[in-house]
Amino acid sequence: MYNAYGLQDKNQCLRDYAPLVKRIAHQMMSKLPYSVQIDDIIQAGMIGLLDAASRYDEIHGAQFETYATQRIRGSMLDELRSADWLPRSLRREMRRIELAVSRLQQKVGRAPNETEIANELDVTLVEYQQMLQEARGAQLVYYEDFHDEDHDDFFERFEFSDDSDPMALLQDERFKVELVQAIENLPERERMLMGMIYEQEMNLREVGEVFGVSESRISQLHSQAVARLRSSLKGC
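Now predict its structure.
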């Protein structure tokens, strides 16, 4: 596959590193809604792999795999952003949950439990959990949070300009401080869950095994934790 000049056969490179693309895709899918097709994510990842092979001809072995992983993930994320992968209807449902959490937080002076949130939404507990399940892939920050004509800018109090993006916000020190505090205020189980997913990079199935519950239950708790964080940071 390699010669003195680096990558020799890009087709062979695609074959050799296809398992890496699939592994990254499956890891990413654990945090995405059911509307996302894994074949689309894999295809985007293969494009990222080919781009890595084209750009980094003089690197091979472990160094190339590290570089390729970055390009693969970047290509997958670009595909998700361009496809607007979380339907607006689901984002509206998440906003409903965020507002309910905020109202209850002010009313009871603590993090409300699932039954209380369901009652606030005037739905059954099962219906509320289904809402959380369908919102799998809910994110802390969306691009449309900065350009939503129907709602106030989500983080307008951070005084970011209209061309700001989520990555710029997530790197802002003021935001980091408030995010850390918001995570500390989560119920213990949800705080642990978020640490496993985002710090230890465990997938939902692995987290479910630790907690002794199903992957779908972890998905629900993740969506609920995101709703709590967005509600807290937004200051609804």
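The first helix runs from residue 10 to 29.
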